[in-house]
Amino acid sequence: MSKRLSDEAIRQLVQQDMQATEALMRAEMQSEVPLAELVMQYAIGDGGKRFRPLLTLLSCGLCDYRGEHAITAAAFIEFIHNATLLHDDVVDESALRRGKPSANIAFGNAASVLVGDFLYTRAFQLMVRTGNSAVIAMMADAVNLIAAGEVMQLGNMHDPDVDEPRYYRVIELKTAVLFAAACKTAGLLAGLPEARSEQLAVYGRKLGMAFQIMDDLLDYTGDEALIGKSLGDDLAEGKPTLPLIRAQQQLPAAGKQRLRDIIEAGDREAIGEVIALLQATDALPYSRQAAERLAHEAVQALTAFPDSAYKDALFSLAQRTTERER
């Protein structure tokens, strides 16, 4: 039976490897182009949750992989994540990221896009250093799927007819694919059979989807000081996320039409009205329950792995994902 670990205990398991990952990222962010280095340091240098490299390092521990490329993998996973954020903030016209002006606000759209490209290519340079063709192939596929998810989401903007299958496919591609890659990389580095490596991918995919649903939920229930971005960002961008999709299924005709109009307009000023509409249905608890179900499925994917502190940590992360407030 798994043991519930605190966040501090989880991070303590891989503290030295995380410090080594930070050192490698700092070294790899050095550039002969001062603006590139400045934007990277601004976007990455002061932290963030480092959730994805944490998954990579814990998965390496679960697989008993102690090689140097655990650090390399954790770094390239975080670089890819931050590259997507730099691009996302331009597309979404976001103003805040991690509680401060986003890079597109601080440096402009052009710098954000180009430095995002720089990070993608730096990540692939790190992948090549592993000398593991399976890792490189898997990551190439993952990055392509992430890009497909972003384009798919763009097509969904301001469309109140987006249904749950379309929503779930978007979050699988744009978020969960990288979680899956972060975990499966460990199995590939450790030389595990494909079926066992794929169990790690299933854990990451389910966890990533639960994580994104909670992120979408916090856009209506969170505290701006905790989540580090403006409440109602998704609404302003016209993103039809799970709470909005569920509410449309339950609201009477007038309320449903009003919600559809707000989604089409991307009206942030209507955030209070939207929250009231959500609270008039079961949309908020329904979304949380969906995240909890996926987190449970994530945990089930790891049952065949031997018991260890790393397994406890991965179980605990899945449980904590649905309790997060940021």
Automatic annotation (TrEMBL):
It comes from the Bacteria. Its cofactor is Mg(2+). Pfam families: polyprenyl_synt (PF00348). Its EC number is 2.5.1.-. Belongs to the FPP/GGPP synthase family. PANTHER family: ALL TRANS-POLYPRENYL-DIPHOSPHATE SYNTHASE PDSS1 (PTHR12001:SF69), GERANYLGERANYL PYROPHOSPHATE SYNTHASE (PTHR12001). This is Polyprenyl synthetase.
